[in-house]
Structures are given as C-alpha cells and as structure tokens.
What we know:
The protein is an alpha/beta fold. The protein has helices at residues 42-53, 74-80, 94-102, 121-141, 161-176, 196-200, 221-230, 253-264, 275-291, 296-310, 336-347, and strands at 33-37, 57-62, 85-88, 109-112, 146-150, 179-185, 205-208, 240-244, 270-273, 315-317, 322-324. The protein is 38% helix and 14% strand. The strands form 3 sheets. A 7-stranded parallel sheet has the order 3-2-1-4-5-6-8, sandwiched between helices. α3 crosses α4 (121-141) and α9 runs antiparallel to α10 (296-310). It is globular. The chain starts with 32 loop residues before the first strand and ends in an 11-residue tail after the last helix. Bound molecules: NADP nicotinamide-adenine-dinucleotide phosphate (NAP). Residues 38-44, 63, 66-67, 91-92, 113-117, 127, 150, 152, 185, 187-188, 191, 353, 358 line the site of NADP nicotinamide-adenine-dinucleotide phosphate. NADP nicotinamide-adenine-dinucleotide phosphate binds at residues 38-44, 63, 66-67, 91-92, 113-117, 127, 150, 152, 185, 187-188, 191, 353, 358.
Amino acid sequence: MRNDDTSSPEPAFAHPHASAATPDAPGAAARRRVCVLGATGTIGRATVGALLRRGHEVVCFVRARAGVGGSLGPAESARLLDGATVRVVDPADAASLARDGFAGERFDAVVSCMASRTGAPKDAWAIDHRAHLNALDAARQAGVGHFVLLSAICVQKPLLAFQQAKLAFEAALIESGTRYSIVRPTAFFKSLSGQIERVRRGRPFLVFGDGTLTACKPIGDDDLADYIAGCLEDESRWNRILPIGGPGEAITPRQQGEVLFALLGRPPRFRSVPVALLDVIVGTLGALGRIAPSLAEKVELARIGRYYATESMLVLDPRTGRYDAAATPSTGTQTLFDFYRSVLAGAGAPERGDHAVF
Ligand SMILES: NC(=O)c1ccc[n+]([C@@H]2O[C@H](COP(=O)([O-])OP(=O)(O)OC[C@H]3O[C@@H](n4cnc5c(N)ncnc54)[C@H](OP(=O)(O)O)[C@@H]3O)[C@@H](O)[C@H]2O)c1
C-alpha cells in the first residue's frame, strides 16, 4: 500500500497500470499532479489507471468506507488504486477536503468521477452538487487550473433530481472561470448488462414497448477513462461540454437482446413491458408518497426507471427535440457486444452498484 507518500512518487514505468503506456503519454514537463474524486467507482477506477498510464501523479480522495455498500476500508481502497496515493477525505465536508485532501499542497488538476450512488434527490444534491461545490472551492484555493467533471448525457433533458443537481454544478463550474472539461457520456456497459444472467438462465429478455423506443452508443469503461484523462492534454476538450459515446452505430434494447441470444446460440425471446405500466407505478407511488414522505426515494427511483425506458442516451437536437445518433461523437474501440462475449465466456458480471436501475 502506498499511502499518502507524495514526496517520492513512483516512476510510472514501475507500476502495473503503467505497463501499457499510451503512445501519447506526456513528457516530464506535461506530467501533472492530479486529484481524483470518486476514484473507487466504476469509471473512477478506470480513470485512475488511465491517468497513471499517461504518467501523471495521482492522489485519490476516498471515503473511510468506500465501494458498494461501504465494503472497502482505506487499505482495500489503496490496493484497488495501486500506484496512486490514497487519502481518506469526506468531500461532503469542506473542512475535510481542505485539511485531509488538498492539505495546503499544489495540484494541477481535479478529475471528478464522484456521483451519488443512489440517484435519490437528497443524496444527489448533497454529492453531485454540494460536495462538488466544496471540491471546486478547495481546488481553486490549491491553485488547481483545470477541473474535469464526469457528468452524464441525460442532463440535456433534466427531468430528474440528480440531473438537475449535476446541471447546477456544471453551471457553477463554467461560471467559476476555472478551465473545465465537462464529459457527458452515453450509457456504460454495466448499465446494459443487467439481463445477461436471466437470459442465460433461459428467461426472456425484457423490453419496454417493442424494444426500439430508445437507443444509445454504449461506451466502455477504459475508453471513457482514456477520454477523460485525455482532457488534461487535448486543448480541443478545454472549456467545452463533451457528449461522448462508444464506437459503432447506436443500439436499441431489442438489438441488445438479439445479440445476447445469438451469442448463446438460442432463438430470441422477448417479453414486452408496456410503458403505461411504469406510468401507473410512478403515479401510484407518487400519490402514496404524498401521504408517506418516506416513499419519496422510491418515487424518484421509479421516475428514473421510466426516464431510461423512454429517453435515448444520444445527443438531443434542441431544434427538433429528437435524439441524433449521427451527432453523438464516438471514441475508443470497446464494444458492448465484445463485452457480452467476455462476460458469457466467464469474465464475471460487472458490479452494477446501488443504482442498478441505470
Ligand atoms: N451508468 C451509466 O450508464 C452512466 C451513463 C452516463 C453517465 N453516468 C454518470 O457517471 C457517473 C459515475 O458513474 P459510476 O458508474 O462510475 O459511479 P459509481 O460506480 O456509483 O461510483 C461513484 C463514486 O462516487 C463516490 N461517492 C458517492 N457518494 C459519495 C459520498 N457521499 N462521498 C464521497 N464519495 C461519494 C463513490 O465513492 P464510494 O466508493 O465511497 O461510495 C464512488 O467512488 C455518475 O455521475 C453517473 O450519473 C452513468
């Protein structure tokens, strides 16, 4: 465990993450000292790897109990983020950020992959907005010149609390005058993998409507991480909002099911769930929620489910109100169907986290 020893950073080549150094790894002059928030999450972990491969010095601020369900103590977090320095910090507490995190030291950049794990309104405003404001404030005091934010493409149509919280911080970041890169990815592989197990067990693939109501250009964790890390060097990504998807054509849920069955060598079987059923659930929970406020979180989770059943994760054309696959930029080489292949071949299902509804 390399814990908080910033005085003698290991050379990048000495670290396993660094073994596949990218061709565009910076020279010593471009090596930056980077603080990473949300390093213990799916994209945060991958991003730490991408930053290390590029030769940057990485300091991760992690919670005392991190990971899904708080399963990681500081030693486990440090093992997970091997090659980076790990500091225990509570980003919800401005004093902890300054004292335990930035600690009066100089940092060149902050990369935040931090986000509420549930998407529930209270948590979303506390983390996606308030904790980020704390971090921006502390970062500016630490002389940080560049803030890279992992956001989400769905904030284009902000109907949900967590989207509004993210947008509010995006606006604060833009207004701050600090150089920013706001990365708004499409859907992650883990969010499109929830039915692999049920289909493998012989059950039908569930779709809303006929399975073609939505589409997305799924992006792999490492491709997204590489894109995020590249924001530090690529000037075309500075002071920009950056929608980004993976390679290839946009894919509908029906196509996801068809490919899963084909990979298993079975004829496709779908079960259609009417969107109207989700409306009933949202409506009923909403009505009950007015009597029992403790249901508020469940109402929001149902609304999140309905949103993803009907909205595409593609660039939204504000003139037409339509999602536009051709206008959605692509990066990387990882495809969802290669990912399905590797999971079916035994690579293990991804950790889908607390808000698996995504
Ligand atoms: N899923 C998708 O398809 C998708 C698509 C586009 C965009 N996105 C966006 O991508 C972002 C990150 O996704 P992800 O899947 O990598 O997230 P994730 O795996 O849930 O990780 C979230 C990270 O934020 C940290 N965090 C959460 N609550 C915290 C708190 N109270 N204090 C400090 N840290 C906290 C977590 O730390 P702990 O380990 O301590 O909990 C973890 O490191 C989200 O903003 C999401 O909206 C997701």
